[in-house]
Amino acid sequence: MAVLDSKTPQGDIAKQWENYKNNINLVNPANKRNIDVIVVGTGLAGGAAAATLAELGYNVKTFCYQDSPRRAHSIAAQGGINAAKNYQGDGDSIYRLFYDTVKGGDYRSRESNVYRLAEVSANIIDQCVAQGVPFAREYGGLLDNRSFGGVLVSRTFYAKGQTGQQLLLGAYAAMNRQINRGKIQSYTRHEMLDLVIVDGKARGIIARDLISGKIERHAAHAVVIASGGYGNVFFLSTNAMGSNVTASWKIHKKGAYFANPCFTQIHPTCIPVSGDHQSKLTLMSESLRNDGRIWVPKKKEDAIAIREGRLKPTELSEQERDYYLERRYPSFGNLVPRDVASRAAKERCDAGFGVNKTGEAVFLDFASAIERYGKEQAAIHGNNNPSADEIRKLGEEVIANKYGNLFQMYEKIVDENPYKTPMKIYPAVHYTMGGVWVDYNLMTTIPGCYAAGEANFSDHGANRLGASALMQGLADGYFVLPYTIGDYLSQDIRTGKISTDTPEFEAAEKAVVDQIDKLVNNKGKYSVDHYHKKLGKIMWNKCGMARNAKDLADAAVEIRELREDFHKNVLIPGSAQSKNSELEKALRVADFLELGELFAKDALHRNESCGGHFREEYQTEEGEAQRDDENFKYVAAWEYTGDPSKSELHKEELEYKNIELKTRSYK
């Protein structure tokens, strides 16, 4: 078993990044135009990286399976992006953002990467404001902030409930400028299906044109994977239906270690599952927990009456409601981290207090906030004796200004007015903290192959705090990767163009063609979705919010059997030489079926509870996660050996020199 070298710079953590930048090798601007870089994925991490690298002078090729980079899943992020600017004057700092992120990740993050993230966070906001991102502003004109779970300050910058969309449009505009200059070649509706390694270095990819079905070879001096997370291994998740693990999994099978796959985030505020017909779930932004209060009835008979439609939630008095997060975690209340809030909701529903027909939902109620804001607005307008109707009207206007599009979205999906009736929410699979292992340079264990954003594992440990995904994606793309990749590419200034007419490209293309031909000619009897849904049920039931050794061992066996059946009996209509969405899905699900087994293996080996990984055997008397720092204070990085069940474990021991290791508490 190898011990992984994170290549973390030595010295004071507050000076590591600056010292690193001062001592790396650089590429002369005249030489950059002779160097090619491939970027797979054009969300925030990929789009930011592509635009910045092209602006520096490199020749960039970008690949996305969507019809436009604007449709990357980053667009779905709602609530905001963190930065340590301390605009509120409430005690925020780079160190506090660093501390909150490491603590929020349940002490399973790499300190050096997280400190760098906190350090460059303020630059992200300045960059995006310069791009025209319409962040919310307060009365005096300064950018406004709100709070997210797991912190005691307001550091989240936002654009209503459309923050991801606005940030992505900024990155897309920066990309478009470089496309117009000819520095970026944009390949939309293309999917990467393999990595090409020449003389031990990543030198290109094999991609499929999703419109024509043509298999293409693309060469470069370095390859960046920024293709997002793997939450769709659960089938039902908040991810876009096309989100997949294929790019990450293909480089894993070529030698990139896959780290902590079991660290998957369950988001507490999603619209509950309504039936077997669903293909995805809808997230309601965590920002709603700033003003929404989460509760269930105190009495089980009231919960049953609400489920059966005999009682309305608005008919229950304050004394008849259990604001269980406020009760259990008085310091943080409704703004506890996502993993804590999710487990608490599951516990109440499992105990019989769920409030929808399936018993798997809790209330998110804005009545108190509407009344509070209404009275405040009435006072501002000089109305010292407002009526209840006036208070409600003024309060609803404030809520609409802060969260209006989220309320509209909820009402369209559920057909209930959330201003009048509390929202129903339940946890769902969201972000993945696990991903491709990278060192401080964001390089994988394959020289010349990098991973950025959600595709890598590096910053969030066992749990991601809200509003930090956008922060990491843009930090990696705008401010980290352009430095670190330059240090590597400085060795390639005499290499010249990379040829695609080599045995390595030929072998990689043949492997892709053979896999496609085998699937198309399988002539089975079941659809791809048939297998994807079955996989999702195994994952959710046995590898979901709560896990135990027996279920995880069973899951690994069941997934292996399902994978074998998939390759025998899946049916792919149509041909490979044309647009074929079922073939696209089949290639992605084939990778999910392998990842799922590694996921279960990783979760089974980690005999502790931390963050998004909650093992039922390892919990305190109060039902909180019980870490084992003595035995599991490491990154579990898995090497592919030809079979997910036989993957070899490599460890990166985590050191905490700047933050004291202690039991995470939000009480």
TrEMBL record:
Coiled coil: none annotated. Its cofactor is FAD. It is a peripheral membrane protein. InterPro entries: FAD-dep_OxRdtase_2_FAD-bd (IPR003953), FAD/NAD-bd_sf (IPR036188), Fum_R/Succ_DH_flav-like_C_sf (IPR037099), Fum_Rdtase/Succ_DH_flav-like_C (IPR015939), SdhA/FrdA/AprA (IPR030664), Succ_DH/Fum_Rdt_flav_su (IPR011280), Succ_DH/fumarate_Rdtase_cat_sf (IPR027477). Residues 36-470 form the FAD-dependent oxidoreductase 2 FAD-binding domain. GO terms for molecular function: electron transfer activity; flavin adenine dinucleotide binding; succinate dehydrogenase (quinone) activity. Residues 532-666 form the Fumarate reductase/succinate dehydrogenase flavoprotein-like C-terminal domain. This is succinate dehydrogenase. The lineage of its organism: Bacteria, Pseudomonadati, Bacteroidota, Flavobacteriia, Flavobacteriales.
